[in-house]
Amino acid sequence: MKNWTIGKRIAFGFGVVVVILICLSAFNFVKLLAIQTRFERVAEKSVPRSGIIDNIRYNTVDVLLCTYKVIGNTDRNDMDVLNVRIKANLEANGKFIEAYKQLSLNEPLKMEAYEKISEIRGRYLKKLEEVNAEGRQATNAEQSARVFLKAKNELDPISMELVGSLEKMDNDETKDVTNDSAAAFAVIHSCVRIVLAGALIATLLGIGIAFMITRRVNHSLQQISTSISDSSMQVSAASGQVASSSQSLAEGASEQAASIEETSSSLEEMSSMTRKNAESSEKTKSLARETSNAANKAVGDMKVMSDAMNKIKVSSDEVAKIIKTIDEIAFQTNILALNAAVEAARAGDAGMGFAVVADEVRNLAQRSALAAKETAEKIEGAISHTAEGVELSGKVAIALNEIVTKAKKMDDLAAEVASASHEQAQGVEQVNMAVSQMDKVTQSTASNAEESAAAAEELNAQAQMLQDAVKQLLEMVDGAARNGNAAFVSSKVIGTAVRKDNKSVKVELDRVKVKSSKVKALTKEDKKQLPMEADFA
Amino acid sequence: MTTNSIKEKIVGDKTQATAAKYLTFILAGESYGIPVLKVREIIKQVPVTAIAQLPPYIKGVLNLRGRIIPVLDMRIKFNMEVSKDTNHTCIIVVQVLSVSRKTILLGLVVDAVEEVSSIVASDIEDTPDFGTTLDTSYLVGMAKIKGKVVSLLNIDHCLGAADLEAVERTAEA
Questions:
Q1: pTM summary value
Q2: What pLDDT digit, counting tens, does each position of A245-269 carry?
Q3: Contact B48, B60 (CB under 8 A)
Q4: Chains A & B: contacts with CB separation below 8 Å
Q5: What is the DSSP code (8-state) at residue B4?
Q6: How far is B129 from chain A (nearest CA, A)?
């Protein structure tokens, strides 16, 4: 029963009451029907029958009376009048008996009584006829007395029997009526009792169930309203948080826009640098080419010079050989002179003149040797200079070759730098795109922040509405808005904070927009400045 | 240049140098001088026929106009640094008096021959006694020629007796 819905509970409560009502009604209906039956019987059968019987009895008695009067009477007119009266009464009784029969068609006991009374009446009528006939015939007192005696002895019993039967029948009817009335009263009494009890039970049940339902519903309502109130307070708080976070988001977006602006300007610098690099590398390439050409030309010249020097060397070598020969000759001459001097010395005085000659020859030889030596030295010097020159030219050739190699390397490097510059330009382009995307994202972030700020405000408003609803609910529950107030107040406070946050969000958003437009301008500039494919042809 | 020659026959084995004409030659960078009268001839470096089982300072023999003369390497003999033969290397053919007073011709390999110069007595000094590689009996004096110090050798005493005998035998062989 705990989990029934309010509809079910109310349905149950009302259902119980309705069921009791229906039961009572059905019961009443049945009882009333019983009473009705009884009453019907009494009213439409017993009482009429009783009436009929009374009438019949009265008529019978009257007939009897008349019959006796007839008997006792000799006057014909009176007797006719009485006979008429008797006939009328008998007719009436016949009708009454028929009526009784009609009333008793469905009641076997009554039909039995009817048959019996009919039978008795039949006898009675016969006897009456007899008596009447004799009576009519009686013209004197004696006849009349005889008839009277017959009547007394034969008609009276039957009349008495008839009356007796009628009395019995009347008593029966009275008993019936009494029974029926008693039964009806009993029914009524029991009905009243039961109806009262039922009504009481129904009332109590109704009250009890209503009370329970009310209590349960109130309890649930209170719980719900409390939880709604709490939730709405939390929603208010959350909306305040959302507002403040959207404000910080807006601030962040604003900062981001500033950084993007910085990045954009840095990119602009970078792209101009790249352009300069590309140009410089172009220049370097052409310089390298020129250098290479000059170096190659120089190498050719060096080769020529080398050949010339080699020729000089060859000539010098030949001259050296000749000088060597001269030197040898000088040397030999010197030795010869020395030998001559020795012989001259050994010859003593005789050799003095020879010694002088020898001396002179020696001098000459020495001069030759000296000259040869000097020449040799000069040649040596020339050769060494030539060798130096050759070596130097070799070195120069190597150096020039190195220059050529280096120039080629420079050329290659310049080409690399050019392609790197190109890639760099592409990279800068991509970064530009990324930056403008970032800018878009920043803008959308800022607008999202604005939206979420508006949503926070909306949320807070809804929370306040919720608080109102809760207040109404609580009023419905216990007629006093106790709990609603606190939540209401806090919602209002939060609402104010939310609005303040939203204002600052708007400010940030404007800043972001300004920066974003600057970034767009810069990105366009970069596009112009970046070196393109054609620049690297 | 005036030749101021004072002739005097050098007889005997006196260690005192006398004023005379000397032939100066270079041996391991130092100048030495021998009396010109001892010198027979100066010839250029010629191939020397090596002889087996001789002392190391005897390089071999040489055919000089039909005569076989032993050739000595003075540098080895004097325990000097032996340097390579240059085109100034000469062989001085000297006359040496052997123990048996016979005249032997020797060839001396020297680094270079300088000149024949007259040395006056005033230029000659006595041998200072300080460590040289030469046994000072060979050294008869020191002379100053043109600022240079020349060691004057007594070639007769350059070789010892045994050496001379060996040389003699070689000469006669």
A1: 0.39
A2: 988 888 888 898 899 889 889 988 9
A3: yes
A4: 48
A5: -
A6: 31
Cβ neighbours for A352, distance < 8 A, ≥ 6 positions apart: A344, B3, B5
Is the pLDDT assigned to residue A186 strictly greater than 50?
yes
Name the A residues in 291-330 with CB < 8 Å from any B CB. Answer: 328
Q: Chain A residues with CB inside 8 Å of B37's CB?
A: 345-346
Beta pairing partners, B117: B22
Strands B139-145 and B148-153: antiparallel
Quote the CA–CA distance of A299 and A304 in Å, as a whole number: 9
Cα–Cα distance measured from residue A510 to residue A501, given in angstroms and rounded to the nearest whole number? 14
A339 close to B (CB below 8 A): yes
Q: Amino acid identity of A22?
A: I
Please report residues of A whose CB lies closer than 8 A to that of B113: 334-335, 338
Cβ atoms of residues A509 and A452 within 8 Å: no
Instruction: Name the residue type at position A365.
Output: A
Closest CA to A68 of A86, A54, A56: A86
For A193, the token pair is: 């009792």
Write down the residue that tokens 């690399």 correspond to: A416
Q: Tell which residue, A396, A390, A397, has the closest CA to residue A312.
A: A390
Instruction: Tell me how close the Cα of B44 comes to any Cα of chain A, in angstroms.
Output: 8
Parallel, antiparallel, or unpaired: how do β-strands B103-110 and B67-73 relate? parallel
Q: In the 3-class helix/strand/coil scheme, how is A424-449 assigned residue by residue?
A: HHHHHHHHHHHHHHHHHHHHHHHHHH
Per-residue pLDDT tens digits for A120-174: 888 888 887 887 777 777 777 777 778 778 777 887 788 788 878 888 888 888 8
Residue from A406, A462, A133 nearest A288 by CA: A406
> From CA A378, how far away is CA A301, in angstroms rounded?
27
Beta bridge partners of B142: B125, B151
The tokens of B141 are what? 């004096």
The answer to whether residues A283 and A346 touch, using CB atoms and an 8 Å cutoff, is: no
Output the CA–CA distances (angstroms, integers) from residue B87 to A204, A527, B71, B110, B111, in the order listed. 161, 85, 17, 11, 9
Could you say which of A338, A352, A363 has the minimum Cβ distance to residue B116? A338
| Rounded distance between C-alpha atoms, residue A159 and residue A125, angstroms | 9
CB contact under 8 A, A328 and B23: no
Which of B10, B36, B114 has the most A C-beta neighbours within 10 Å, making it the best mutation to test the interface with A? B36
Residues from chain A that touch B36, judged by Cβ atoms under 8 A, are: 341-342, 345-346
- Total length of chain A: 537
Cβ-based interface (< 8 Å): residues of B facing A: 1, 3, 5, 7, 21, 23, 36-37, 39-44, 87-88, 90, 113, 115-116
Q: Is the pLDDT reported for residue A295 higher than 70?
A: yes
Q: Which residue has the tokens 């029907």?
A: A33
Q: Which residues of A touch B1 (CB under 8 A)?
A: 359, 363
Q: Which of B157, B144, B145 is nearest to B96 (CA)?
A: B157
Candidate from A335, A356, A359 with C-beta closest to B90: A335
- Helix or strand run (H / E) with residue A235: helix A156-347
Q: What is the ipTM of this complex?
A: 0.78
Lookup: tokens for B135: 């046994």
Amino acid in position A307: D
Distance, CA of B169 to CA of B173 (rounded, Å): 6
